[in-house]
Structure formats: structure tokens, C-alpha cells
């Protein structure tokens, strides 16, 4: 394509080396060097080369930008992005310094490059944040009816966008927003830090995202998204809804090598809310999450839901460490959601000082409005956990299905989790159909069939629907 021919060369080589390294590390990732296709349980083409975004170089200072932490750079970002758009693509260099700005949009074939020591700092004044219509699959601003604030860095209908650098920072100065939200001073839903909508071929790597007003990184209805080497930070208490990454109605997503410590879920895979999400009907599918370290004191390391009304399928969560957190991995849904969560594989999980390790909840009754259909029951099926380790965990497993929303096709194998306090009934189940295979400790609930390692049935469950929940633990 002609837009790549005005090459400055260096960045192309850098990117090629970067991708080669990514591919190699993927190939040699697992002990024994299992090939990625064997390691991934569905036909995911996740090792695509990231087409480099346009390579003509632009410097924010040439558009009137000043990185002194005081000057407002909204206009400079707008002009720079417009110049890149006119050129058909390019790389916007943001050098060391603190670049205060209101929200701005990206364009296609663009790289936003944050040098070491570069900080893009969001304006706290909400009147400088444009309002946008609610997301069609949510119907609602999420927190308030009607419009919502856009994101600090935003994009719609884009192709081939890269946000990267030498670990520069995008900081949303969320504290002012969290405080106003708590005091009920905001009339609209808070905006995410980075939100890319209806786009494809997105790479976000080697940067730090912090103090988002709301969800941090929100790819919405995107295809081919790679998020790698990103650090996401927010206070673990009193930073409401600062989820790390929310792939929402997205397809073919890779999230890897990230460190996330935030005030809500580390990662939450979503696909719309109740009747709005059902109507919009866009699933999240083919998602790989691996080598993440996550801390979530109030919520969970990696979640699916609770907004999953467009369906979520084919998810692999691998090599995940969750520490000092309330929950490690969680699937949350409710009556009225409709949709499904199916074909989810978790393997090589490590829980350190986590209250509840594995959680499935079917009573997450948070609804946009009274218009949801109570007969819209979500399906939760074919969920596998293997290689689960941990220490200092209170309740390793709590799978809470109900008569309306039973959990089907659960498999647990190779699990050994150390308890905070040794006691019984810490592997809790209700309305669960499935099996444990080989050694599993602590002792599994009676709802599950028991198989030996050779795959022979040892004991068939006669009590799939037994309920053994103890929320006091
Ligand atoms: C997404 O990536 C896959 C696998 O590399 C590729 O075959 C496909 O063309 C890409 N799709 C889009 C929309 O870019
Ligand atoms: C960014 O694009 C969106 C969607 O086209 C638009 O609503 C918004 O006003 C734009 N924001 C800015 C700062 O130009
Ligand atoms: C990532 O950041 C590090 C540290 O600043 C830098 O050395 C490295 O070149 C960056 N890698 C990429 C691919 O940008
Ligand atoms: C990037 O910066 C963050 C925040 O300063 C830091 O915690 C992280 O370790 C850095 N990552 C790398 C790879 O240097
Ligand atoms: C919210 O609405 C009220 C009543 O219209 C208005 O007084 C207030 O300034 C608004 N606050 C914000 C942050 O927009
Ligand atoms: C795993 O992710 C961390 C960042 O959290 C990174 O430092 C480390 O190199 C990654 N491991 C591999 C094998 O890529
Ligand atoms: C269960 O999910 C796994 C992993 O996605 C998949 O390979 C398998 O075909 C699924 N089995 C059923 C019965 O759906
Ligand atoms: C996912 O699950 C469904 C139903 O359980 C099954 O038909 C389908 O083959 C599975 N898909 C993959 C890719 O494993
Ligand atoms: C368990 O409950 C489901 C409905 O949720 C029902 O279809 C099934 O027959 C029950 N199983 C047993 C063994 O009672």
C-alpha cells in the first residue's frame, strides 16, 4: 500500500523485530515448546503480524504542542491527527514531558508513540469532554440514562491503529471523576481512558495506562486486537469501575504480558447488556489472555460478564497470576441477560492470597432498566479449569448455578490450592453438571462426577442440583 512507502525504515525494522520476538516467545512459550496451534483449543489466528501503521513521522510540538503540564494540547493533538489523516497515515511522536489535553480522536493507519517520560494527562474539567450517544448494546450510558462522556483517546471506524512507545503514560486523572461520581455530581456516565469502536487491526503495547475515570481500555466491536506489555494502574480502593481491559463484542483478541492493578476487574470480557445487548447481538469470541499478573481488591482478576447478552465463546485464559484480590476468575450473569458463555478454558492459574478463586454467579442482578425480559436466561456451558495452584485462599471454588440457569459441562483437573484456614465445604457448588479428573484438592463438591487420570469413571454424581453455598466463608 502506498501509505507505507514514505518509510523512514527504522521503525519498520523495529516493529519487525518486535513481532519476530513476539512470535518466537509465543512459539517457545510453554515448557517443551508446544506449538501454538496445539496449545490453543480453537482455530485462532492470533499470531498475525501487525501491519505497521503509516510511517511518516510527526511531532506534536510542530502542531503547537507544549509538554509543560500546564498548556492544554487538545488543539495540537487535533491538528496532528488531521495532518496524519490527510497523509493517509503516520506516526505521531509524543516526547518526554507532560502533555495536558482534553479528549481527542485517532485516525486510521496511525501510530501514537509515547517516548520514555512522555505523559498524556487528561483534563479534569468534564465540560471539556464531549458527550456521545450510549453504546447501542447497552442502551444506557451504563451509569446514567442517555448520553455518556466519550473517552480521553477515542476512535471509531478505524483500521490499523497502534498505540505504543517506550513505556510512556496515559493518565486520566481519574480522582476528580471518582470523587464527583461518589458525590453524585455527574449527570452522565464517566468516560473510559482509551476507547476504540467498530475498528480492526489494533495494537496497544509497551505503555502505561493509569487513573482512568471509568473503564481503562475499551475495545468495542473490534476485530484483531493485540494488547501486549501494557501496565494498567489505578488505586485498588476508591477508584470505582476502573476495569483494566474490557473487550466488548470483539473478535480475535490477544491480551498478554500485562500487569494490572485496578479498582475493579482486571479484565472483563463483555458483549452488551440485557435487551439492548440481545438486540444488538454481537458476541465476543476467540479471545486469548495469557501471562497476566493482576490485582483486584474489590472485584476479580479476569471476569466474563456481567454484560454478556451478545454471547461470549472460545476464550483461553492461560498463565494468570492473581494476588491480594477478592476473586481470581469470575463468570457473572443473571436472568434477563440471555446470551451464552461457552467454550472457556482456564489453565495454569495461580492464586496468592485470594478470597475466592473460581467464581460463577448467576444472580448478578444489575439491569439497565425494568425493560429486561426475565425469561431471557443465559447459558453457561463447557468451562474447563486445569493446572490451578494457589496459597492462602479462603474458598477455591464457588460455582453457583440455579434451577433456571444451571451450569453445564464443567471440567476441573489438576488442581491443588492451599487454604487460608483449613476447613470443609470450600469447593462449593449448586446446580452444576460436570466432572473432576484426577487429583483435585481441596475435595470437590459432590455435584461433579469423578474420573481417574486415565479417563475412567470412578463415581457418578447423584446430586448435580445439590446446593452447598456458604457465603460466610
Ligand atoms: C484478522 O487477523 C486474521 C489472522 O491473522 C486475518 O486472517 C484477518 O484477515 C484479519 N481480519 C481483519 C478484519 O483484519
Ligand atoms: C471524535 O469522534 C466522535 C465520533 O465521530 C465524535 O462524536 C467526537 O465529537 C470526536 N471528538 C473530537 C474531540 O473531535
Ligand atoms: C518498550 O519499552 C522499553 C523501555 O522503555 C524500550 O526499551 C523498548 O524498545 C520498547 N519496545 C517497543 C517495541 O516499543
Ligand atoms: C512501565 O512503567 C510502569 C509505571 O511507571 C512501571 O510500573 C513498569 O514496571 C514499567 N514497565 C517496564 C517494562 O519498564
Ligand atoms: C447536572 O445537572 C444539574 C441540573 O441540571 C446542573 O445544575 C449541574 O451543573 C450538572 N452537573 C454537571 C457536572 O454537568
Ligand atoms: C510476562 O509478562 C511480564 C510483564 O508483566 C513480562 O515482564 C514477562 O517478560 C512476560 N513473560 C514472558 C515469558 O513473555
Ligand atoms: C468445549 O470447549 C473446548 C475449548 O474451547 C472445545 O475444544 C470443545 O470442542 C468444546 N466442547 C463442546 C462439547 O462444546
Ligand atoms: C463451542 O460449543 C458449542 C456448543 O457446546 C459447540 O457446538 C462448538 O463446536 C464449540 N466450538 C468450538 C470452536 O469449540
Ligand atoms: C437438575 O435440575 C435441572 C434443571 O435445572 C433438571 O433439568 C435436571 O433434571 C435436574 N437433575 C437432577 C439429577 O435432578
TrEMBL record:
SMART domains: PbH1. Keywords: Glycosidase, Hydrolase, Membrane, Transmembrane, Transmembrane helix. One of its GO terms (molecular function) is polygalacturonase activity. The chain crosses the membrane at residues 12-29. SUPFAM superfamilies: Pectin lyase-like (SSF51126). GO terms for biological process: carbohydrate metabolic process. It comes from the Eukaryota. InterPro entries: GH28_Enzymes, Glyco_hydro_28, PbH1, Pectin_lyas_fold, Pectin_lyase_fold/virulence. PANTHER family: PECTIN LYASE-LIKE SUPERFAMILY PROTEIN (PTHR31339:SF44), PECTIN LYASE-RELATED (PTHR31339). Belongs to the glycosyl hydrolase 28 family. This is Polygalacturonase.
